[in-house]
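Bench log. Compound arrived from synthesis this morning; before running ITC I wanted a structural hypothesis for how nicotinamide-adenine-dinucleotide sits in the protein. Inputs:
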Amino acid sequence: MSVSFDILNPATEELVQTIDLAGLDQTDAAIERAAAAFESWRNVAPADRALLLRRFAAAVDADLENLARLEVLNAGHTIGNARWEAGNVRDVLNYYSGAPERHFGRQIPVPGGVNLTFHEPLGVVGVIVPWNFPMPIAAWGFAPALAAGNTVVLKPAELTPLTAIRLGELALQAGLPEGVLQIIPGKGSLVGERFVTHPLVRKVVFTGSTGVGKRIMAGCAGQIKPVTLELGGKSANIIFADADLEQAAAAAPGGVFDNSGQDCCARSRILVQKSVYEKFLGLLEPAIHAVTVGDPADEDTVMGPLISAKQLETVSSFVPAGAPVLFQGTAPQGRGFWFPPTVLAPVDFDAPAYREEIFGPVVVVVPFEDEADAVRMANDSVYGLSGSIWTQNAGKALRVARGVEAGNLSVNSHSSVRYATPFGGFKQSGLGRELGPDALDAFTETKNVFIAT
Ligand code: NAD
């Protein structure tokens, strides 16, 4: 029996498309096709594999505006963000197209012979993608996996399969052989779980909630199947008294409200040194009101809607009647899943808005005393994904960056992701690293060969 899923435009609640979801039989058939394709894909000459990835990147580039418009429609991303996201897929593919010819093994001196190491591909890699950044997160999994010689089955989130399906078409159009990259829209509890339990899937890359991540890790233990996990976050934006406060306040909304706060790296706790707390709030207020919320297809829009009615309900629960709303922006009324940019202060340290990932445009602002206090507060979380530090003292910036238990820190900016540098979380924010030069190691096994001379 085939099941379908209605894709709604989050800005209007209008039906965009109805998608057939894969069942177990289709999933198993796709995994078997991927396993068959692996035998030839791993043996494609390195230069030819590189060329195919570059052609795939060029196909994405040629389709960039279409992909971006599709994401505006499906996920409510602003058009500016969506163009960046499609461009990121192209860039990640180009970056890893350099890998097939450069993923060297080693020759290690040993007595009695020659010792060589090889990076062998794993086989079929299952990539499970969330709805918040459907395009980039898919590419961070499939691009290095394919470059290393694996084949990929990819499950997009139920809510946002359209760009992933299009990327699958572009891969074929670019000349990647059938079965090398397959997109399987379906339920997490069915298709995603099958990636965990099917013995031909040799690795799972999962991005999503920490709860589901734990379940996947436990499931993979049954076959000692390697996993990469990119999970939730509750990152701190630490602002010291000696920072350029105007710049820090102007940038703070972007650090948390980008993608309507549906960002695992959202700096949803702003920690401000007590001596400048009031001054900072005075500068923050106009920056919050400058966040224009509206039609994501409009070039001037800064923030679009939330992804779904369910997400709107979740986010709203963090701002109940009587919540300490210090400032609030505006959002469209009527149809669509809208929530205005919201600043809460003062909040208790045990308040859900202070402790839990909100995944919406809600931020708390809290004062701290000194450097030690700031680091302690930033680390007082089960998560450790990213964070920002604002100060003009380079020594302090580095000390605090080393002290914060998180995988991705930025000083005097809110940058988290660059395709050439490693990305991932400490503590319950994840396991392993994506992107950068070392991601290939997560998609290969090291083989050691000794030849007696
Ligand atoms: P989710 O965990 O509900 O779903 C993520 C994906 O997993 C979806 O494709 C879903 O269908 C699938 N899934 C659900 N149940 C499954 C199961 N039992 N077995 C296998 N797959 C299953 O998360 P979401 O609501 O889509 O995404 C939001 C979460 O993702 C947030 O917590 C956010 O922080 C996190 N996230 C993390 C990063 C990161 O890089 N660290 C990036 C983006 C999102």
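What the model suggests: DSSP finds 14 helices and 20 strands in the chain. The pocket of nicotinamide-adenine-dinucleotide is lined by residues 128-133, 137, 155, 157-158, 188-189, 192-193, 207-209, 212, 215-216, 230-233, 264, 357, 359, 385, 425, 429-430 (CB under 6 Å).
ITC booked for Thursday regardless.
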